[in-house]
Amino acid sequence: MELKPYQVGENDIVLAENEQKAIEFLKEYSGCFDKDEQLDVEDLSPRLDMKLMSEDGEFFSTLGDYIADMKEPQYVVGWE
Q: Helix, strand or coil for residue 64?
């Protein structure tokens, strides 16, 4: 199973098999969305060099390095 990072909605990145599973995972994980609510999804696999920042605005990893050892669908990171 190949997992890819997806940005779901405006503020969350999840690791999933495809766009639909990314949406389903985030809805179940967060409990903040209606079952029928439509969410935008973007495949971030072409952007593995994306810089991830801490809450203090400090660089801590690229997206690719951060997810390199993740082997199961999961929540990766979010921001407000």
A: helix
Separation between Cα atoms, residue 23 and residue 77, nearest integer Å: 14
The pTM score is 0.91
Please, what are the averages of pLDDT over each run of 10 residues along the chain (80 residues)? Answer: 94 96 94 85 97 92 97 92
The number of C-alpha atoms within 13 Å of 4 and in the hemisphere containing its C-beta is 17
Handedness of CA 62, 27, 39, 21 (dihedral sign): positive
Q: Distances from the Cα of 51 to the Cαs of 7, 21, 27, 45, in angstroms?
A: 14, 24, 25, 13
